[in-house]
Design a protein that fits this description.
CATH architecture of one domain: 3-Layer(aba) Sandwich
Number of strands: 38
Largest sheet: 8 strands, mixed
CATH superfamily of one domain: Alpha/Beta hydrolase fold, catalytic domain
Radius of gyration: 25 Å
Helix content: 10-25%
CATH topology of one domain: Rossmann fold
Distance between the termini: 15 Å
Length: about 700
């Protein structure tokens, strides 16, 4: 029996058929008109959106509001609970860098961070010594959307670059702040990717510019005080399938230009001794070969999968000749031991690796070669490696948490192996880890693979199949969902939910092959793994199929659309946040912002009939049929450049038209935000409270 009662008639999108033919295959799209012709301009000025499209989106929002009207009090209660678990005036532990230590903090009631610095050895809890550099709440005043890109200081600590996006479109504006007077200079740089890298003298910096397709394709050199129009083009990447980033080094000796797609990378480096030189190519791009670099004094340390090192190895090369011919192995490839990232300091090499789904921090003495690890004993946990802001140091910083253990921040002396607890995440409303259980179970997939599933539930939850369950999944781009502490999900767990994360193929949870087995022609493994996780939880009586609410966002939203088509009867409801559901149309349109860079992940259906058919077989929008779909809600942002608003809009329209007896199908479009939703920390909680209220309502326990 549906929990949605007395709903008004839902909006019905007009059908305006548009057909296309590729590889002799013709498809018809009834809802292509929902894509605004002027979408690129609209991302920067939403007032120019076609009135017919705006009217339809507003009608969908009104229908969604009616469907969720009886959860308003629940949403408020959930929001209050989540907010109550956040220390409102929380502050970071400042990171030492030269004469200062830099940190960030919030004020009670504040939505945005404040960036500050204190004297290097000052007491971080002494607010009287804090020098406020940037007040995010002040900068965000009067804006519907505002996201900071942080602040980066010069080597002499006199100036800082800071950036902001006030549309949600991810076009960032950069400003330069005098860190003594706290006044911004006249320089204004538009349409950047956010952030920049200072030259050592603090008189210029490097940044990337976003093109009209939202791709950071050019690196520019900006001289402080000059107009943006006079900035020098340092390097341009002409292949539309590649992104660029620009970064600096702890030694201030080199500028890194990182060029990459999802499976291939290339670095060009610029010595800060000659800022006008041509960037030097390190190793020419080779399809499927990735590498990343960090400085090590007279050598570079390079993390790479070259030479069939599928789970990556670390090599070194002389700074004077860093080309591939001079790469010398330092940390060998070991199958099943995936090296995730690395950093180097004066006396130590550090890397984060993962074995059997669990992270470990490894430390190597650069002189003796002796290695040791930092590891923990829980069944499932998360580690974060922050490193240090200085090169000549023995002390690095890392974080630890689990589903039951609040985040802990440590300083670690790599020479003495002394571990100092700096901070434990406070939960003001209270949290007793002993009240909860975290588990790591394994679900058998269709082909015999063992899929890890991380669980969190209250110790007093009855596990007889009656508990509702929120099952979360992502499964793309090699991204691993950490088993870390999440105060928000406690609002579900405290109401009797089992909270589950399915570590499905498409991520790197079990090594690089776990990623390869969930992409391109093997993409269906991702969906089948998720369904197997649901089946296992039912088999082991953690829940029942009519009690499982599935949730995923972005590429995880595509997962939601796929499993809805494949096994609608196995879920009580589905939450699809900014869902990438119109996969075939998007991959067929090389004018869209992210299409060419995405081909290595999904396939190129323009050039290949085989790859066209792979995508056509699972693309959620293309596979909607008359089926007993459960209730589904899709959430989107009008200015989202990653998953454009029309994808979930078209999907919901087709679901409603094709399966009118199923659902209901709801669409919530944030008319003033992009891919990440609202920007403020409490505004974001309102969105999570809405999603959880939907889950609770669908589970029938509201």
């Amino acid at each position: 029996m549906s929990v949605f009662k007395n709903l008004p008639a839902p909006p019905q999108a007009a059908k305006k058929p548009v057909s296309d033919t590729h590889h002799g295959i013709t498809r018809t799209d009834d809802y292509a008109w929902l894509r605004a012709d002027n979408w690129q301009q609209m991302f920067k000025d939403t007032s120019i959106l076609d009135p017919e499209i705006r009217s339809y989106l507003e009608a969908e929002n009104a229908y969604m509001d009616a469907a969720m009207a009886d959860t308003k009090d629940l949403q408020k209660a959930l929001f209050a609970e989540m907010k109550g678990r956040i220390k409102e005036d929380d502050s970071s532990i400042p990171m030492k860098d030269g004469p200062f230590a830099y940190g960030s903090a919030f004020v009670t009631g504040g939505e945005q961070p404040r960036y500050f610095r204190i004297p290097r050895d000052g007491n971080p809890t002494d607010e009287a010594i804090r020098d406020l550099l940037l007040d995010g709440d002040k900068e965000a005043a009067g804006k519907d959307y505002f996201r900071l890109a942080g602040i980066d200081h010069t080597t002499d600590h006199a100036f800082g670059i800071w950036g902001y996006d006030d549309k949600g479109s991810e076009y960032y504006t950069l400003r330069i702040r005098d860190l003594v007077t706290k006044q911004d200079l006249e320089d204004v740089l538009e349409n950047t990717a956010g952030g920049g890298v200072w030259a050592p003298d603090g008189k210029s910096f490097f940044y990337t510019l976003q093109d009209e397709n939202h791709r950071p394709s050019k690196v520019f050199h900006h001289i402080v005080g000059e107009p943006q129009s006079s900035d020098r083009l340092v390097y341009e990447e002409n292949d539309p399938g590649f992104f660029m980033g620009v970064g600096g080094s702890l030694l201030d000796d080199v500028i890194y230009i990182d060029i990459h797609d999802h499976e291939t990378s290339e670095y060009r480096i610029l010595s800060t001794k000659d800022l006008l030189a041509e960037p030097q190519l390190v190793a020419e791009r080779e399809e499927g070969v990735e590498y990343s670099m960090t400085e090590g004094g007279d050598v570079f340390y390079i993390l790479t999968n070259a030479d069939d090192a599928k789970d990556f190895k670390i090599v070194e090369a002389p700074v004077s000749a860093p080309g591939k011919a001079n790469w010398k192995e330092v940390v060998p490839h070991e199958p099943g031991r995936l090296i995730l990232n690395h950093m180097a300091f004066a006396r130590h090499l550090v890397w984060l690796e993962r074995r059997e789904g669990l992270p470990v921090i490894m430390i190597r003495d650069r002189k003796t070669g002796e290695e040791h690890s930092i590891a923990f004993a829980e069944e499932a946990y998360s580690l974060g490696l922050q490193g240090a802001a200085e090169y000549d140091t023995d002390v690095i910083r890392f974080s630890y948490s689990s589903m039951t253990t609040p985040s802990q921040l440590f300083d670690y002396n790599m020479a003495t192996r002394e571990r100092v607890l700096l901070k434990t995440q406070e939960v003001p409303s209270g949290h007793n880890p002993a009240d909860y259980v975290t588990r790591r179970v394994f679900a058998e997939a269709h082909d015999g693979e063992q899929v890890p599933v991380t669980l969190l539930y209250r110790r007093d939850t009855v596990l007889d199949g009656s508990a509702p369950c929120l099952l979360y999944g992502y499964g793309a781009y090699g991204i691993t969902i950490p088993a870390g502490f999440n105060t928000n999900c406690l609002s579900l767990v405290d109401r009797g939910f089992v909270y589950a994360i399915a570590h499905i193929r498409g991520g790197k949870d079990k090594g690089f092959s776990w990623y390869e087995d969930g992409k391109m022609e093997k993409k269906a493994n991702t969906f089948k793994d998720f369904i197997a996780a649901a089946d296992h939880l039912v088999k082991e009586k953690f829940t029942a199929h009519d009690r499982i609410i599935a949730e995923g966002g972005s590429a995880g939203g595509m997962l939601m659309g796929a499993v809805a088509n494949m096994a609608p009867e196995k879920f009580a409801g589905i939450i699809a946040a900014v869902p990438f559901v119109d996969v075939l149309n998007t991959m067929l349109d090389d004018t869209l912002p992210l299409t060419p860079p995405e081909w290595p992940e999904w396939g190129n259906p323009i050039e290949s009939e085989e790859e066209y058919r792979w995508i056509a077989a699972y693309s959620p929008y293309d596979n909607v049929e008359k089926k007993p779909y459960p209730p589904i809600i899709a959430l989107s942002g009008l200015t989202d450049p990653r998953v454009t608003y029309w994808e979930p809009t078209k999907w919901i329209a087709r679901l409603r038209a094709t399966a009118p007896e199923a659902g209901p199908f709801l669409l919530k479009t944030n008319m003033a935000a992009g891919h990440g939703g609202k920007s403020g920390r409490f505004q974001r909680l309102e969105e999570i409270a809405f999603e959880y209220a939907y889950a609770i309502k669908v589970a029938g326990i509201a």
